Amino acid sequence: VRDSDTPLRIGRFADRSDTNKLAFKSKIVSRAHAEIWSDNGKFYIKDAKSSSGTFLNHLRLSPAGSESKPHQLKDGDIVQLGVDYQGNTD
Predict the structure, then answer these.
(1) Rounded to the nearest 5 degrees, what angle is found at the Cα of 16, between the Cα atoms of 66 and 51?
(2) Residue 48: how many other CB atoms lie within 10 Å
(3) Among 36, 39, 41, 31, CA closest to 56
(4) Neighbours of 18 (CB within 10 A)
(5) Which of 4, 30, 32, 61 allows an S-S link to 68, with CB 3.0 to 4.6 Å?
(6) How far apart are CA 52 and CA 38, in angstroms?
């Protein structure tokens, strides 16, 4: 991903012909889950209204179904896509 590139879209896609997509075959990952892009040599990530969340260093970027603000990625950051549903824990 370079500064002038279209953001890399991350999700669960049926059509894998687009080169700007990173596709996962997982029910935890939403169809349009997150985006990563570069601006002035810095990398950013945002959640694209996913239901199971995008996490940066174990912190959820936004509530379910809400787009997050951009978060800068740094060397060593941990990015997680979604969480497994644990069911009723009562």
Answers:
(1) 20
(2) 20
(3) 36
(4) 10
(5) 61
(6) 24
Place of tokens 């990398």: 43
Distance separating alpha carbons of residues 63 and 75, to the nearest angstrom: 25
CB under 8 Å to 61, separation ≥6 — which residues?
45, 46, 47, 53, 54, 55, 68, 69, 71
What is the identity of the amino acid at 38? S
What end-to-end distance do the CA atoms of the chain give, in Å? 44
Cα–Cα distance between 62 and 76 in angstroms, integer? 21
Whole-angstrom distance, CA of residue 57 vs CA of residue 77? 6
Residues 15-46: tens digit of each pLDDT: 666 678 888 888 889 989 999 999 999 999 99
- Which residue type is seen at 41? G
